[in-house]
Structure formats: C-alpha cells, structure tokens
Design a protein that fits this description.
2 copies of one chain form a homodimer.
Chain A (H helix, E strand, L loop, with lengths): L5 E5 L7 H14 L5 E6 L1 H7 L5 E5 L10 H6 L4 H10 L5 E4 L3 H12 L9 E6 L6 E4 L9 H17 L7 E5 L10 H12 L4 E6 L3 H4 L4 E3 L2 H27 L2 H21 L7 E4 L5 E3 L6 H16 L2 H16 L1
Parallel strand pairs in A: 1-2, 1-4, 2-3, 4-11, 6-9, 7-8, 7-9
Antiparallel strand pairs in A: 5-6, 5-10, 10-11
Helix pairs in contact in A: 1-2, 1-11, 4-5, 6-7, 6-12
C-alpha cells in the first residue's frame, strides 16, 4: 500500500453509466482533497465526456457486465470494466475497488480474482443500517444463500472488525438473527451456530436478536445467512420508500397538509440525510483478500462520493489485517 | 355453525388485560350490531369490571398463560383462559377464537386442541401487510421455523383462499419469497419448492419474489418459511415505527417544522388508519381444524375490534372449507 489509498471504480457499473460516477468522484475530491487517488475503469471516451477534473486516472475497458448477466460467466470475462478493475487490484495497482454493477458478478469476480482472506471460509456482504442508536452492520445480506454454522462465527468476527475500525464501536455487540430472544427459538442453523458463537472468546456476543432489533440499535453487528439477510435488507429499504411515498400521496390530497409539508421541508431533508442509504451507499464484501465494495445499481453521485470515502477509511484502518488477526486469535484460543 | 358466528376471545391474553378487550368488544358491537355473538374468557370479576354492555357472555377461567411461558407446557394447562377458550371451540360452542397472548402458546394450544385441517401438514401463521396495491398476505410468519418444500405449496393454497375470500382478490397472485426474480437464485428450500409450486394447477403462481415486493404489491400472497417470514414481519413493523419516531424527533428540533406538522395532522391520521396494524390486528393460524386468530401482545381496543370483524368474516366465508377443497382438488389433479 502506498501512503495514499488508491481507489478504483467500475465506471460502467450502475444503472446510469459513467455520469454519476464522474460526478461523485468530483464531489469526493473536492471534499477530501489529497486523501486518496482515483482510477475510473471503463469506456474511456464516455468517461472523459463527464470528467471535469483532471486529477483522475482513466483505464480503458472495452466491454461491460450487463446487470442481468449470469454472475459466474460474467466474472470470467476479462475485458469488462469489472474484470480489468479486479485485475488492477489483484496486481497491487489499486488498494480498494468499488462497483455499483451486477452484485452477483462483482462477488464472483472478487472471489475468483482476489480469493479469500486467511481463515475465512466464505466472504459475506455487509450492509449498514442507520437506527435509533449508532447504526447496525448486518451480514451476510446476499453473498451466500446457504451457510454453515461455522461461517456465521467468521461473519461475526468480520462484522465486529468493521464496526470497530470503521464505525467506532469500541466493543461491538454481536447479535445472532433469530425469531425470539430465547435461545430455544430459531431454526436449525441458529441452534447449531449458538454454541459456536458463544465459544468464540474474542466476540462480544449478546445472544439471539429479532428483526425488530435492526432499528432499535440493540446490537452493532447482526449475523445471519445471506438468504435471510437479503430479505431483511430489501424489506427494510422498501418499507422506507413505501412509507415516504404514502406520506407524499396523502399530503397531496390535502391542501392544508401541503402547506404543512412546506414548513417541514428543512427537518425532513435533515432526516433524509441521516437515514438515506446514499450516505452509506457501499456494502463491503468482507472476507476477500482485498478491498471490494458493492453499491446499489441506482447509485447517484452522492452514493459514489460516500463509497469513495468509506473505501478510503477501510484501507487506512487496515480492516482486513484486523479480521485476519481476530480470527487467528480465536483459533489459537480454541486450540 | 349457527347463523350468527359465535366469536370467543381470550380476555387475559395481551399486555393490558381485559380492559382493551372489553372496550374493543363494545366498539365492534356498536359498529356491527347483530352480526356476531361474543364470549370473553378469563377472570370473570375482572372482565365484568370493564364490561359496560350486557350483550356479551363471560366464561370464567381462573388461570392465565404468562407471556413468557414455554409454549408447549402452557398449551397443556387446561384451566387457563386460553385452554378454556380452545376447548369451547373444540366442543362446537364457538365458531372462532382470538387471543393476543403468548403466540407460541396459542399456536401450540390450537394444534393440540383443534388439530389440522384435512390435507394440511402444518398450519401457518399469516400476516396481512398494507402496501401500494391491495395488500399482501405473507405466510408463514412464525409457526414453523423449519419447513419442508411441500408445506410451502400448502401455505400457498391457504394464503390464496384467505386472499380470495377475505381480501377479495379473485385470482390471487402467489409469489415465493427468494433473493432475486431469477429461478436460479434462492436457497435450497426455494429450489426444492419451485417445481412443486409450479406444478400445483390451482395456484396463480407468478414466480420468485423479493423482500421489496412486500410493499410494491407485486403479489397478493407471499410464501416463505416461518423463520424468514418472522424476520420480514418484525423488520417491516420496526422500520415503520423507526421512521415515524425519526420524523417526530427531527420535527421537535425545528419550530417551523412543528407548525408544519400541525397542518399535516389530518393527512397523517388518515395515513395511519390505512397502514396501522391495529386495523388488521389479527393473524389467522391457517390450516388448523378451526378458526384461530392471534394478535399482538400490545393490542389496543381498535385491534380487538378489527379482530372480531375479521374472524366473523372468516367464519361467514367458510374459508376453511375452501382451503380443504382447493388442496384436495390439487391432489386429485396431481394423481
């Protein structure tokens, strides 16, 4: 690693092409000048058309991965912006990479190209949720539809390191997602994972938690399989947009309420900036031997800006080293 | 069944004792006079203390099930309000029963006392979610932490009948909860269930759906295991209360916004009545040989009122007969 993190972005990933990528890069450079170096990978002409600032490297890639492409096949194509980006990271020319493209393809590409961290059986996708507390990291939210109980222990270590070094939780409280606080509840996976997580000495395990704990801030890290986590992620996000839309619809029917909404604009904008996913807009794929974050397909400039910032911090804080050490320490204690 | 549905309520279930039960009963009687007969079961003196109207039968039960009691043991105690209520239904003296008590105990009591409908392997708890469409029924939301693929087909039939006869969906669209619309995605259970649900001729199956489809109204019935469904239910509910609370907190910090909130009161009250769970406040345990609905522990008078109405409609519409017929028809087609 050089002294300044070198961050690479898949400029062709995401629903809107290189435009929001270039705009987000410009925002980040203005806000944190000198803190990172940026490389955008993709169709050079298209990227340059949107690039106002000079301080960004562009690496050309002729092809791109379609949002609907099959993950494994897409990850094997080397000429795509995603393939070139991953290769640059593998070759040590970048310290962290980000794509808002086809999630399955990014996961597969990272697994193939970067491999796994020592001690990690399966990488997991982690998502950050703002809540009444300091926010909660949930993993896995979709990298592994089926998991083994032992992997959940590794997820707990990875999530703890992320919460500690990136979110500032000194001793992150880890919860195992279940359907009741009682240890007797939950499915077979939960029953198998409970004794394993409890036995891990370097975890601050607080016990089983429920779906409602996500927004209560009961724990800092919530561990689950990638099927349940993905359902939770998509349900929570769509609940927020459904409620927002419902309020707007109801207000539009009532002239008095429209006046009220005008007065509330400033407060609602503040709230939005606190809970909007675009502020956190990047999910780390924890457990790969590298730094790979994945974004929403609909990421706008603010999401790219936030992603660049989070990636930079992840590299600076050497989160992967901490994950490796913590998993190793746990093995040593157990042995 | 007599001409007027006889509805029984566990007056000791729920966090607030018989008071909201009696108040909810009074509300329902005033709103739909003559449409049902009511029986409250529990401590007779306590119930009568809150009972203003005369037109309600009270059956005494000396004991009650604690909210924290172990489900199976609690369900075996016969002297509790829940036990007496279930027995009255089993004996044919009631056409439908409702409890806002310990969910596990109510499920266990119904299973033990009433048994299963013909053709049903496992009953499932169904929850109704308001959304941008006509609302979606999700099952199972917690009766079975582990399920077999074949049970999901039965859940689909049960949910379809509920959606058709109680929610007015003529040809309910059934979705299988997964983590992508592609049939190749999802966990092992989804992979095993897909061909079975597709083969069921009497279902209007639209394919795999995602967590976000819950609020989009993509399907009328969403089928999943009781672990995932419970996480989805609790996440969605807590997302709504988190957002509501966040708006209130932000508004309180801003005097201008407080003025705005005053103007918006009427519109927000309308919205609340449309999406508040107390309006739908009862989840049917579909597949038992009887009519058993379960409510939130924190049910207030409005939730009991709504539950009485939904139970009455369920009995009137003979939903269980339709479930039995539909599952039988599917067996006959398959054979």
């Amino acid at each position: 690693m050089t002294s300044v993190p070198r961050i690479g972005i898949d400029a062709m990933g995401g629903d809107f092409g290189p435009k929001p990528v270039a705009e987000g890069a410009a925002l980040a450079l203005r806000e944190w000048p000198g803190r990172f170096r940026l490389t955008l990978v993709g169709d050079e002409a298209e990227i340059r058309a949107h690039l106002g600032v000079a301080d960004i490297t562009v690496v050309h890639a002729a092809e791109k991965v379609d949002m609907a492409a099959k993950a494994a096949a897409a990850a094997r194509r080397s000429g795509t912006s995603l393939g070139v980006l991953t290769q640059l990271h593998k070759d040590g020319q970048l310290d962290g990479i980000f794509s808002a493209g086809n999630t399955g393809a990014v996961v597969a590409s990272a697994l193939l190209g970067l491999g796994r961290l020592e001690g990690v059986s399966r990488p997991a996708l982690a998502a950050f949720f703002p809540n009444v507390g300091q926010g909660t990291v949930v993993l896995d939210v979709g990298a592994n539809a089926e998991v083994k109980a032992a992997w959940l222990v590794q997820f707990a270590h990875m999530g703890s390191c992320f919460a500690r070094y990136l979110l500032g939780h000194e001793n992150p409280r880890v919860g195992l997602l279940s359907i009741g606080e009682e240890e007797s509840k939950g499915n077979q996976l939960v029953q198998e994972a409970l004794p394993l997580i409890k036995a891990a000495r370097h975890l601050n395990f607080i016990g089983p938690v429920e779906g409602r704990d996500l927004f209560k801030g009961t724990c800092d890290v919530m561990v689950t399989d990638g099927f349940t986590g993905n359902v939770l992620l998509k349900t929570a996000e769509s609940a927020a947009s459904f409620l927002g839309r419902s309020v707007r619809d109801e207000v539009k029917k009532d002239p008095l309420a429209m006046v009220g909404a005008f007065f509330m604009k400033r407060a609602l904008a503040k709230l939005r900036s606190r809970i909007d996913w675009q502020e956190y807009g990047a999910a780390p794929l924890l457990g790969v031997n590298g730094v790979c974050f994945i974004g929403h397909g609909s990421s706008g400039p603010r999401a790219f800006r936030s992603a660049i910032h989070t990636l930079t911090s992840f590299v600076e804080q050497r989160v992967n080293e901490h994950i490796r050490e913590e998993i190793q320490a746990d093995h040593d204690t157990a042995a």
